[in-house]
Structure formats: structure tokens, C-alpha cells
Structures
1.
Amino acid sequence: MTAETRAVVIGGGLAGMLASAVLARHVDRVTVVERDVYPDGPQLRKGVPQARHAHLLWSGGARAIESLLPGTLTALADAGAHRLHLPRDIVWYTPYGWQTRFPGSQFMITASRALLDWVVREKALANPKVEVLQQTDATGLTGSAERVTGVRVRDKDGQESELTADFVVETGGRPSQTPKWLAALGLPEVEEDVVDTGIAYATRIYAAPAGTPATFPMVNVAADPATGRPGQNGALVPIEDGRWLVTLAGTRGGEPPTDDDSFIDFARGLRHPVIADLLERAEPLGPVQGSRSTVNRRRYYERLETWPAGLLVMGDALAGFNPVYGHGMSGAALGARALDTELTRNGLADGTADAARRAVAEAIDGPWLLATTQDICYPGTRNHAKDPRIAPREQDAQAFADLLGTAALYDPVVSAAAMQVTALAAPLSSLESPHLVAALRKAGQHTELDGPPFTEAERAVLEGDSAPALTGA
Ligand SMILES: Cc1cc2nc3c(=O)[nH]c(=O)nc-3n(C[C@H](O)[C@H](O)[C@H](O)COP(=O)(O)OP(=O)(O)OC[C@H]3O[C@@H](n4cnc5c(N)ncnc54)[C@H](O)[C@@H]3O)c2cc1C
């Protein structure tokens, strides 16, 4: 008889649930260590305070989650999540102008973060191989610099114990303690890059006006990094139960207020007032909530010369991005899929953790670059990164980005190419494809849209004369 194999996951957030789903395919038993008590339904909890704010799940991440936990997207739809086709279902004021609403092949899931987490958690924990120790804190790693053999934990009564494991995945999010825990095992300091725009978030949930069509689009007014002013943006996101979740954000020097009275004023001061106009017709369902947990921080575990067998770090614990790009959850999902590939290739062999740390780092490199290379354009950004790629664009590269951004507004081929990168469904390098270059050459004259491209029924919501509908938003 062979001995039972066991994996331990530190932190049962979204990345932890996806890691558990992967590990359950390759070991006999998975134990998740989670500090919080899980709510019974789609509710907020202490360990994920950012859940109050807009959480967009791009198709690159959504497809990865579906491949690891089949049926998740249907379960989300059944629970009221919206599936927005991109760019058809978004009224989007990009830095270059209004985006034409082409059908497109990418999509985005919009729902409250609490609902997203709940559906994924229900799916992951339905696997009988996965157990959770709630109200339990991971306090360190056991083993040596050559091999991690388990996790030290403390339960709610303060009792300390050790969980032995063949494989440990740390997904404790931004407060990750792994650099400290590795130092205790005798490993050197982990290199880290930080790019901090100082961006602050303010979010308020509204009831959509009566009669709003169920297909009402997301509305997004993006910041324009070329203005030299702090980046201010807003997103009105349709979520379950006929609600609009509205997140406003501003980089250092342009932060949104967090008092209820000034919320709409800030929205009116964006590059276009459309979100403010819509909010005048909607009913707030609670107070404004703020967040400043937004810094781009990447830890380069893949650069350590030696790496203990049996350990991997994933999700925000590995790399947290400025949330304005909406890539955190998708990055975690792509990382989980990379782990699955490595475990499928080599099982629990000694080299798997080493290969997985490199594969996971590669999976998050795209979103890391998308966020940081854009963020350094805003005044007041503190760039503490040593990554030489995080530098102002050369003139040619900027000219290409401007051409791409402008042509994507009115050319469906260019739009699809740009959208698949934004949705993390294709790598940044796909923008070099001959297919796209040819489309860019052809993209010549165009007529700019002179205002938000709403349909007649959507415009009726804006103008306050929408007919009562049978279904809510
Ligand atoms: C304001 C804001 C808006 C965002 N918007 C988006 C968006 O639109 N789209 C998107 O994709 N991403 C977005 N993100 C990013 C997203 O929230 C994160 O990428 C995602 O939550 C990462 O998941 P995670 O599981 O790695 O970490 P978390 O969700 O932070 O979960 C960590 C878990 O570990 C537990 N834990 C931590 N330490 C321990 C320990 N020592 N012992 C036991 N348990 C522990 C915590 O209780 C928690 O359950 C946003 C982030 C912020 C701040």
C-alpha cells in the first residue's frame, strides 16, 4: 500500500480555492488553512476587504477557472452574474475616444466579488478530497531550505500544531509572510519590485432605475495617461439583483472622496459625465466605501538560486496589481492552470515546485507589465522597480500604442486583437502578429463617435424615460 499524499494550501481566498482544485487532481488529500470563518452565502468577509469594490473577471481568467472547476460559469449565470460580450456590452470612453460596440469574441463576468468567491468556493469544496480548517492561522513553514515538509498553524484557541505536507501552496494574498518564513529556513532575501500610483478607490452600490433593461452595459470612463494629470476613472458595473456597483478611482493627487455627498460630483469631473448622469437616476443602497490597497508589488521567487522542493506561492501573495486593470483574479487563475500543467507533467517529483514557480511567474508577467508600464505615466507614481522593462516608452513604441488604441475604436480586427490582450486571453507578444500589422496598415479614415454609444433603450435610462420592464437589470 502506498502512503497517502497530502497538500496544504495557506489562505482559502480565490487563488487558494483554485490551487485546491488543481492539487485535488494530483494528491489524495488537500487541507486549506483559512483564518476567517466563511459566510453561508455570497457575503463579505474580513479576510477579503477589497470585495466591496468592482471585481471584473476577464475572459482569459474566466476560461481558466472553468477549465479547473467545470460548471462555474453556468453556476455564476444562474446566480445572477452578467456575462458581457466585449466590446459589445460596454460603453467605453478610452483614452483615444468612444469604443465602437463590435460583437467581439472576448467577454467579462460581472458580479459582486462575494458572489464570485462563493460560487468558486462551493465548486472547489464540493470535492471530497478538499477540507478546510477555518479560524486557523498559518504561522510558518516547516522543513529546510531544500524541502518544505509542512505548515505551522494556530487554531482559534491558540493551540499550535504542524500539518505535514508533500506540497504547500501559499495563497495568503497581499499580507503574505512567505519572504519572512523563507528567511527563517535560511533562504536569502526575495527580490521585490513595487510601483505605486497611490490610486485610491471609492465604491457605492445603487439600485438600477426601474425599467433598466437586463442587458444594460457596463459604462467605463478611463483615465488618459497622456494628459500629465493624475489618472481619474470610473466604472458602472451591472451586478446581480438589478444593482449597479460603481467604482471611482484616482491616482495620487486625484483621489476620490469617500463621503456620500461628493461621490457624484467626482463622477461628473471625469473626462465624461455619463456615469454621474446615470447615478442621478439611481438609488444608493449603502454608503461609499474606500480602499487604498492598490500598489503593484511583485516578488521574484523564481530568481532565488535554490528553491525548496514542495513549495509554491501564487495569487496576490506572488504579485498584486493596480486593480484598475482588473487582472488580479485572472492572473491567479492563469497561475493555477500553470501549476496544473507542471503537476501533470511530473507529479510530486522533486523538480515540480521549481518548474511551477517559473511557470507561475511567466503566467503573471503579462498583467504585471500591462499595469506597471501604464502606471509610470501618471504624475506622482513612485517607481521602485528594478525591472528595466518598466520605463517610459520609446517614441516608436508610443506611436504604435497610439495607432493601436485609435484603430481599435473603429476597426473590428484591431479591436479584437487589443481586446484579447486586455482580457488576458492572448499574450502581449500577439500584438506583433503579421495579421494585426496588416490590419493596422489598412485602418485609415474613420468617423469618431461623438458621445456614448447607447442603444435607444439604454439612452431612455439615461434620460429618465425608460418604460417599466418585466425584468430588472
Ligand atoms: C480595490 C480592489 C479592486 C480589485 N478589482 C479587481 C478586479 O476588478 N478584477 C480582478 O481580477 N482583481 C481585482 N482585484 C484584485 C483581487 O482582489 C485579488 O487579485 C484577489 O483577491 C487575489 O486572490 P488571493 O486569493 O490571492 O488573495 P485574497 O483574496 O486576498 O485571499 C487571501 C486569503 O488568505 C487568507 N489568509 C491570509 N493570510 C493567512 C494566514 N496566515 N493563515 C490563514 N489564512 C490566511 C485570508 O483570510 C484570505 O481568505 C482588486 C483588488 C482591490 C484591492
2.
Amino acid sequence: MTILIKPSATAKATATKDTLSADFAVIGLGAVGAATLYQLAKRGAKVIGVDRYLPPHPNGSSHEPARVTRNAVGEGSAYVPLVRRSQEILSDLERTFNADLMERSGTLIIGAERPTSGEDFVEATVKIAQQHGIEHELLSSAELKRRYPQLIGLTDTDYGYFEPKGGFLRPEPIVSLQITAAKQLGATVIPNSVVKRITQDNGRVTIVMDGIGARSMRICCPTRCGV
Ligand SMILES: Cc1cc2nc3c(=O)[nH]c(=O)nc-3n(C[C@H](O)[C@H](O)[C@H](O)COP(=O)(O)OP(=O)(O)OC[C@H]3O[C@@H](n4cnc5c(N)ncnc54)[C@H](O)[C@@H]3O)c2cc1C
């Protein structure tokens, strides 16, 4: 979950002892929030990121060693431009910070049997790849068995979609690097703080947090847009 508070050009927020002010507050610093924080900081925005834990951590979705990525997203064609852009950003991060964030191993998806009617996930993936000109190969069961002898139990009706430019991401280093980079660009990061309440009043959004073992704190963002 990431909540982004958008700014208004007109309203102003002030900082006091228990109140921080910012153009943007990003609530939740998983994969989405960390990327948002970094991109905003890169654009020169005054941004604060809050997470209830110290990210990266195993209590959300952006943990463990790997997350699959591929360009033809069988879940829906609308994701294709997002994935393409995310891979551009990742390559840029790798170059800028000399980091190893993605294993470009290719992605193999195996279907149990080509459907005689309708469309299964593999068919949907193939259709999206064709629509968007995404490089891919269709593999017969025999070809799958030849190329991947380690896959025991393939049947004669199994078939495969292979996308050479897919692979897997390293979510924890990706989160960590973007938070560090955002901080270097001036972002404020508040870990171990739970956002309890978000209110909007008089052209300002106020985010009320409870820090673990700390007193409650507020972030004020000038806004007319809400969350
Ligand atoms: C087991 C698993 C396997 C997956 N495999 C894939 C895959 O192969 N490929 C793929 O593309 N996707 C995969 N996904 C999905 C992908 O990992 C998620 O879509 C993505 O990590 C979500 O990121 P997020 O930033 O939206 O959420 P999260 O990573 O969950 O981040 C949300 C953050 O908000 C913080 N938070 C929540 N409430 C508050 C609060 N009140 N105050 C302050 N902070 C708060 C949390 O602590 C957390 O850090 C997988 C997911 C899981 C769980």
C-alpha cells in the first residue's frame, strides 16, 4: 500500500516541533513507495516517506530474494507500458549506482495444454506479446524437454512461452537503494511509524502517525487533491 499526498501550488504548510511539512508524503515504503519517494526527490520535491517498519522488511509484499518480471503481462495489456518503463528505470538505477538489481535470465511460462477454445494465461500472454511486438518464442513440449531437462514431469501436452528479456528482480536491494538515494537527495524518511489518521482541512492534509515508543507526530502537506 502506498498513499501519495499531492500538493497544491497555493496552500502553505508550516513546521513546528511535532509537525513536519512537505510537498508530498509517501505512506508505505515497499516497492511502490520507495520508487515514488525516489522519483519525487529526484524531481526536487520536498518529500517525506513513512513506514510502519524499517524497510525493506518482510511484513509487506516487497521482500524475499526475487520477483518475476516480464514485458507481456498476461494479467492485462495495460501493464505493458508500466513494465517497460519500470525496466528502463531499473537499468538507469543499475548504471547510476553500479548495482545489480535484475537478473536478465529470460522468463519461461508453461501451460498445461493449449486450449481448444477460449484463452488460458499463456495464450493471453502470447496475444499481448504479439500486440506489443515483444520478443518471444513458443516452445512445444518436445522443445521444452530438450531445453530444460531439469524440469521433470513435463507432459506431451505442455507448452511454453519464453521471453528472453524477462527475468527476476531483487526487491529488497531495489527498495533499499531507492530509499537511500532519495535520502541523499534530501527526502526525509520516518521508519517504525504507523500512520493512524489522514485528515484534510483548510487546504492542508494532515497525516497523524504513532512512532513506536515515540510521541505522535504530524506531517502537513498543502493540498487540494486528497489522496
Ligand atoms: C509471495 C509473493 C510473490 C510475488 N511474486 C511476484 C512476482 O513474481 N512478480 C511481480 O511482479 N509481483 C509479485 N508479487 C507482487 C509484488 O511483490 C507486490 O505487488 C509489490 O511488492 C507490492 O508493493 P507495495 O509497495 O505496493 O506494497 P508493500 O511492499 O506491501 O508495501 C506497503 C508498505 O506500507 C507499509 N504500511 C502499511 N500500512 C501502514 C501504515 N498504516 N503506516 C505506515 N506504513 C504502513 C508497510 O509496512 C509496507 O512497507 C508477489 C507478492 C508476494 C506476496
